[in-house]
């Protein structure tokens, strides 16, 4: 364990609150100059890196910062840390989740210096015009490996790069993806231009690592959630069977990895390049599988309410002129419709 009396001494950072760790300050120095993916093992202070960048941006440029995290507990945890670590007033660090009414969010946004939120509510507020990102000078995406498919991170990132006067993105993850292609996908979706990775073997990091004792606890999903999950898994299996029949999937496994799905997409792209009709058919099915996987992720790891909002977005997309066949099939499948109904009960 590392011991030191040195603390971070910077504007807007609470005196003697943050231990100065060289690897964190190095990562922050990189991240404050470009849109950066920060990859650091769990427990080594990725959030501190983002906070240091936020403090510098607020001090030097002004505006406000936005930090997005995928779950309400994470949002609350980040908010508590930011209120302790920054010298700004506690009420200038605001939390946006589904528990805060849209009207209250609109009112709070104008006076906030740091907004910490779940991505779904920010996406909804942007679509409805309740908030805008023009004055956001730093935007952080926590657990950036979620930035695939139709996840709200992607829409928010696109709007941020378009709308902000002086945008700067920091994205954080302990595991951005299983291979280079997945990492590049996350970078493209979030507008990242710089990738900085540190591991437990790096000299600056090693002295802060500990031996860990992991204990897994199995938690049973509620019956209503299991029913929705099982319906969606049935549809995934059906679509994977169709991809297998096209000769691009080796099996109809429901729990297929993202890496294997990327391989399937590569095969379909080659078929399309050769103008083979099954390539176009398979690519549409592949897009539907990605939508289904996102729905499964939401119901298993977040909440039925998050899934309901996702279903609402998919229904709206399917109604639009020029909607894809994948979107239309997704919302019209009887099993998906039953899952939608159960999510609104």
Spatial strand sequence of the major β-sheet: 3-4-2-5-6-1-7
Helix fraction by DSSP (H/I, runs of at least 4) = 40-55%
Written as H for each helix and E for each strand, in order along the chain, the element string is: HEHEHEHEHEHEHEHHHHHHH
> What count of domains describes the coordinates?
2
Taking the sheet with the most strands, its summary is:
7 strands, parallel
The N- to C-terminal Cα distance equals: 51 Å
Question: At the first level of CATH, what is the class of the largest domain?
Answer: Alpha Beta
Number of helices: 14
Radius of gyration: 22 Å
Number of strands: 7
CATH topology of the largest domain: Rossmann fold
Spell out the CATH superfamily of the largest domain.
P-loop containing nucleotide triphosphate hydrolases
Structural description of this entry:
The protein has 345 residues and is of the alpha/beta class. It has two domains: 22-206, P-loop containing nucleotide triphosphate hydrolases (Rossmann fold); 223-344, hef helicase domain (phosphoenolpyruvate carboxylase, domain 3, Up-down Bundle). It is built from 14 helices and seven strands. Strands 3-4-2-5-6-1-7 form a seven-stranded parallel β-sheet, with helices on both faces. Strand 3 (93-96), helix 4 (102-111) and strand 4 (114-117) form a beta-alpha-beta unit. The termini are far apart. 39% of the residues are buried. The model is unreliable at 1-5 (pLDDT under 50).
């Amino acid at each position: 364990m590392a011991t030191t009396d040195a603390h971070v001494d910077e504007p807007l950072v609470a005196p003697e609150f943050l231990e100065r760790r060289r690897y964190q300050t190095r990562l922050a120095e990189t991240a404050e100059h470009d849109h950066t993916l920060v990859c650091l093992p769990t427990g080594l202070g990725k959030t501190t890196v983002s906070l240091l960048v936020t403090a510098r941006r607020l001090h030097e440029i002004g505006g406000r910062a936005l930090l997005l995290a995928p779950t309400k507990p994470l949002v609350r945890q980040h908010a508590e840390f930011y209120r302790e670590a920054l010298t700004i007033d506690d009420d200038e660090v605001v939390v946006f989740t589904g528990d805060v009414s849209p009207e209250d969010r609109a009112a709070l946004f104008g006076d906030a210096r740091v907004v910490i939120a779940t991505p779904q509510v920010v996406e909804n507020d942007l679509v409805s015009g309740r908030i805008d990102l023009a004055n956001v000078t730093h935007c952080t995406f926590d657990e950036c490996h979620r930035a695939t498919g139709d996840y709200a991170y992607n829409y928010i990132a696109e709007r941020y790069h378009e709308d902000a006067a002086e945008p700067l993105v920091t994205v954080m993850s302990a595991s951005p993806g299983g291979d280079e292609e997945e990492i590049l996908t996350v970078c493209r979706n979030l507008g990242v231009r710089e990738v900085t990775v540190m591991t437990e073997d790096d000299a600056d990091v090693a002295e802060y690592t500990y031996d860990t004792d992991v204990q897994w606890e199995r938690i049973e999903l509620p019956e209503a959630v299991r029913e929705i999950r099982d319906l969606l898994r049935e549809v995934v299996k059906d679509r994977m069977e169709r991809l297998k029949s096209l000769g691009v999937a080796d099996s109809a496994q429901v729990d297929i990895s993202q890496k294997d799905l990327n391989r399937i997409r590569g095969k379909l792209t080659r078929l399309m390049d050769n103008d083979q009709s099954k390539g176009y058919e398979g690519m549409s099915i592949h897009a539907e599988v990605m939508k289904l996987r996102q729905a499964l992720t939401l119901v298993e790891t977040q909440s039925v309410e998050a899934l309901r909002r996702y279903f609402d977005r998919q229904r709206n997309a399917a109604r639009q002129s020029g909607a894809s066949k994948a979107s239309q099939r997704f919302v019209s499948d009887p099993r998906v419709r039953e899952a939608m109904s159960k999510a609104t009960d």
